[in-house]
Design goal:
By secondary structure, the protein is of the alpha+beta class. It has one domain: Beta-Lactamase. Helices cover 20% and strands 35% of the residues. It is built from 2 helices and 7 strands; from the N terminus they run βββαβββαβ. The strands form 2 sheets. It has a 5-stranded antiparallel sheet with strand order 3-2-6-5-4. A two-stranded antiparallel sheet has the order 1-7. The longest helix has 19 residues. The chain is globular and about 35 Å long. The two termini are 20 Å apart.
Length: 121
């Protein structure tokens, strides 16, 4: 199974992760194999920020129905954004810091499922 994140500007994320409600990774994919371990570390670090943003009573100004968590944190090389579903499944998207994506483009990202073509024997 291959998942791609596409934006309206046709740029893609460098890493995407789907995290279960118990914070166990269900799917992590990175475009650059050599940076995969670093990107996994960034994803796991972002989970602490997700927990802070979703903690009850700490952020009354945030609409609890809003699935988009926004920018979780940024580094010199990456920006990490998050989404969370009503069932507490988390989507973490890592984008190159040099990317010119605006906040509303990240918010409207589409997650596309692309299945490989079945082999015909």
């Amino acid at each position: 199974m291959l998942l791609l994140v596409s934006f309206t500007t046709t740029r893609m994320a460098v890493c995407i992760a789907i995290i279960a409600k118990d914070n166990s990774p269900q799917y992590i994919a990175a475009l650059d194999f050599e940076k995969e371990l670093e990107l996994q570390y960034r994803v796991h670090s972002a989970l602490d920020v997700v927990d802070e943003k979703c903690a009850p009573g700490l952020k009354p100004s945030q609409d609890s129905r809003d699935l988009y968590l926004g920018l979780l944190y940024s580094t010199e090389s990456h920006k990490i954004y998050g989404y969370i579903t009503n069932t507490k499944i988390k989507f973490i998207i890592v984008i190159d810091s040099n990317s010119l994506l605006r906040e509303n483009e990240v918010r409207s990202a589409n997650l596309n499922h692309m299945s490989p073509e079945p082999e015909i024997k």
